[in-house]
Amino acid sequence: MKKFFIPVFFILMLVITACSTHETEKSVGKESKKVKDELITYESENGPIKVPAHPKRVVLLSGYAGDLISLGVNIVGVEEWSKKSPLFKEELKDVPTVSDDNVEKVIELKPDLIIGSSTSKNLDKFKKIAPTVTYTYNKLDYLTQHLEIGKLVNKEKEAQAWITDFKERANTIGEEIKERIGQNATVTVMESYDKTMSILGKSWGRGTEVLYQAMKLNIPDNVQKVTNKEGYYTISSEVLPKYVGDYLVISKYMDQDNSYQKTKLYKEIPAVKNNHVFEADAYTFMFNDPITLDYQLHFFKEHFLD
Asked: Which residues form the Fe/B12 periplasmic-binding domain (predicted)?
């Protein structure tokens, strides 16, 4: 009798274990699907919109790659300018380039969230593919913009933590720089691209937010005046000396015409003669996301203080 009882006992145990495992797998499967399908309401600039609580496949039609990368959000399609930043090279190396002209390519990427600009084309079509959220460039200040991206992808706490830390670090470095160069010293930021030259205001990427807002260095009065409306001001190289302060930061495209730097007019600018010119790679310096801002802060610390 004992010989018969033992196998039956084990058979019963196997059946019970199998049933328990099956129920656990069903429960985990349901929970996994629940997490996958969970939605939150995001208050966009165009009104409330339902978006994934945990987006897994984001397509970017505008330059917020650094924001998402810093928050650990997966990108499956990105606009061309972000692909050009060396700071995102590793994370975006296998990510296809997309544009608002190619709706079919975006469809193929099966996004669960699309982020674009208020000026992006074909928005009505993109909204049929996945929840689509747009932002108006410079409507929000650069830190609030990152916080909004954090809210959108359900990582507000992480975004706020970085903002708090960045503000403290930038303020400390800014004070050190002002002690070194003088409280009243002025800094101009300029960029030359495709046969045009522009001086930049307080919130146009290229390190302007770090210099003028985070570190509170001084922008020349005439630069502030002409850039106040659009954020930048296009000039000719002949009038550049008029707008250059005590220091000049050049967001420089090495693949563009930079012959103005060989002219006598440029070489006679006091900032140039005093070796107060800092050149940064324009593709690296372009954006104002956490990754780029941290790079810019380090760049300015090195160039102003070393």
From this structure: 56-306
